[in-house]
TrEMBL record:
Protein name, per record: General secretion pathway protein F
Domain Type II secretion system protein GspF intervals: 73-195, 275-397
Cited function: Component of the type II secretion system inner membrane complex required for the energy-dependent secretion of extracellular factors such as proteases and toxins from the periplasm.
Source organism, top-level taxon: Bacteria
GO terms of biological process kind: protein secretion by the type II secretion system
Record-annotated membrane-spanning stretches: 171-194, 225-244, 378-399
Keywords: Calcium, Cell inner membrane, Cell membrane, Membrane, Metal-binding, Protein transport, Transmembrane, Transmembrane helix, Transport
Length: 406
């Protein structure tokens, strides 16, 4: 059976959309009429999905959130481990979903599986939903005959990645809001408040204090050029983003980031933790080490670290141990290298990689917590200092008002 996408009119004349399975378009139209729906358009969903990677822009290809992907994976894992046939498990998961996009996606995957294709092959038609690591683990699970446990591991992995990402985003929300409010307050004071307060001093024949002169000049600049400065900043950000689309420029930028003290440590900790966790779960799923290294390298966001992971894979292919290859790179954390060496010696490499990832994520969380704890009072001090300067610039001429007035 094949999945079809339809649009039809109900008894009230309203347009409804959805997906149905059938042997032909004619049969699907018959099903719609039996439900008292008048078909407007019926098309094979697989035909659109199969060609999506070749003709659709990236932003038009089907996507689902990490949370939805974890939920779907968890449902499939439970159904498959209940000895339900794969196509029936996919259909049951589609029926349980209230999201039309997820329902259509699962039905399209099911129709491919019903045609005799493997689950990994069917998922490969949606690379923006099921990435290479996901498909590699599904392939390993299908070949080894333990697809259910592999899907459960994938659900755990996806949920953990979403939790870590959400935690980092939440940690950054407050500082961004604080900085934004501070900038908005200062700009508002300069544009609307300061001109009214210091305007009485501008016509004085006496020379104003340098701090007051600087305040007036800054206020005049913001009033005259503030909008253009904002436009320039937005244009510069868009230009930088466009320039960084080039892989060579992005690699140079990433190399520069790795030279910034403090920031480089956070980038390396975040990326290598993701690398170790991915490598661990791939190897635990039965993926060969060389293939696991190649796939795990793709999760590294920093291109320089990604190049290092490729060099590590080449050294391992030439016969080197994994810990020596990581140590030769020079960018992977020493603790990770030592734990990998211990895992290779004891035969528990997957476990040690998982522990290494957990340790790095814990260290990263503690570092971010310390930085945020220092950042908040620092911003309060900076904001208070700026307000103090503005107040002093206004009060200094007032203190000298008796000598200024003739």
């Amino acid at each position: 059976m094949t999945a079809y996408r339809y649009r039809a009119l109900n008894a009230d004349g309203k347009l409804v959309k959805g997906f149905l399975e059938g042997d032909s378009e004619r049969q699907v139209r018959g099903q719609l009429r039996s439900r008292k729906l008048r078909p407007v358009e019926v098309e094979e969903a697989n035909r659109t999905a199969a060609n999506s990677a070749s003709w659709r822009p990236g932003f038009l290809q089907p996507r689902i959130s990490a949370g939805d992907l974890a939920m779907v994976t968890r449902q499939l894992s439970t159904l498959v481990q209940s000895n339900l046939p794969l196509d029936e498990a996919l259909q049951a998961a589609a029926q349980q979903s209230r999201n039309a996009r997820i329902k259509g996606l699962l039905l399209q995957v099911r129709s491919r599986v019903s045609e005799g294709y493997t689950l990994a092959y069917a998922m490969a038609e949606f690379p923006l939903v099921f990435n290479e690591m996901y498909r590699a683990m599904v392939t390993a699970g299908e070949h080894a005959g333990f697809l259910g446990p592999v899907l459960e591991q994938l659900a755990d992995y996806t949920e953990q990645r979403q939790y870590t990402s959400q935690k980092l985003k939440m940690a950054m929300i407050y500082p961004f809001i604080l900085v934004g409010v501070a900038i908005a307050v200062v700009v508002a004071l300069m544009v609307f408040v300061v001109p009214e307060l210091v305007g009485i001093f501008t016509h004085s024949s006496r020379e104003l204090p340098w701090l007051t002169q600087a305040l007036i000049a800054t206020s005049n600049f913001f009033r005259a050029w503030g909008v253009w400065v904002l436009v320039g900043l937005i244009a510069s950000a868009m230009l930088v983003r466009r320039l960084l689309r080039s892989e060579s420029r992005r690699r140079k930028w990433h190399r520069l980031l790795l030279r910034v003290p403090g920031l480089s440590r956070l980038i390396v900790a975040l990326d290598t933790a993701r690398f170790a966790s991915t490598l661990s779960i791939l190897m635990a799923s039965g993926v060969p080490l060389l293939d696991a290294l190649r796939i795990a390298g793709q999760v590294l966001t920093n291109l320089v670290l990604r190049d290092d992971s490729k060099a590590v894979a080449e050294l391992v292919q030439e016969g080197s141990s994994l810990n020596r290859a990581l140590q030769q790179s020079g960018r992977f954390p020493p603790m990770m290298v030592h734990m990998v060496a211990s895992g290779e010696a004891s035969g528990e490499l997957e476990t040690m990689l998982e522990r290494s990832a957990a340790n790095q994520e814990r260290e990263l969380e503690m570092t971010l917590g310390t930085v945020m704890a220092l950042f908040e009072p620092l911003m309060v001090v900076v904001m208070g200092g700026m307000v103090l300067l503005i107040v002093l610039a206004i009060l200094l001429p007032i203190f000298d008002l008796n000598t200024m007035v003739k």
